[in-house]
């Protein structure tokens, strides 16, 4: 995919979960399709190129395969997109300096593999400290719960964030299935969690950190990341 003609020569790295089951339930999960396609559509429309990685590499499991969603349907029918997500790079093999931003899509699978990925934590730290943008939506902020800066502070400490709320987790009946409650854990790391009513779009921007609460927030997260990147914010 071509780089932007507005001087943005580095792509954005989209990171997807490789975890396929909801804990001990055996129920399938994976990355949530709309949390990939909606931000992707925004960035591509702005001429910003995107590459894909996952924790284990290869083809990650997909959840939320709602093809009544026009954007989902368009990308799912696109051979280029399908080939890209079928052959993701293993996060351990990416070179963080190649990217101007990193984005973590949600899906319940993230709750098991994102927080434990030292390579994801390293990529977050390197991209952020180089002046890049870090974004995540829904359960994607699970990648942030153990991410630290070079000085040992949690990236989210003292920052405003949004993420899938404890109430939303209870609403889907998985509060006792996930290994931890995401919003509560982010708060325990020092984040200022900013919830909105369940299932409403809620995007929080704190400097170069962009987070969204739920699938309804995916488009807005893409817009916020696009705006930061096109503005050339590097501080």
From TrEMBL:
The UniProt entry, under Pfam families, shows: DJ-1_PfpI
InterPro entries linked to this entry: Class_I_gatase-like (IPR029062), DJ-1/PfpI (IPR002818), Prot/Nucl_acid_deglycase (IPR050325)
User: What are the annotated GO cellular component locations?
Assistant: cytoplasm
Where the record annotates domain DJ-1/PfpI, the positions are 35-218
- What does the record list as coiled-coil region(s)? none
Keywords of this entry: Glutamine amidotransferase, Lyase, Stress response
| Family assignment from sequence similarity | Belongs to the peptidase C56 family. HSP31-like subfamily.
Protein name, per record: Type 1 glutamine amidotransferase domain-containing protein
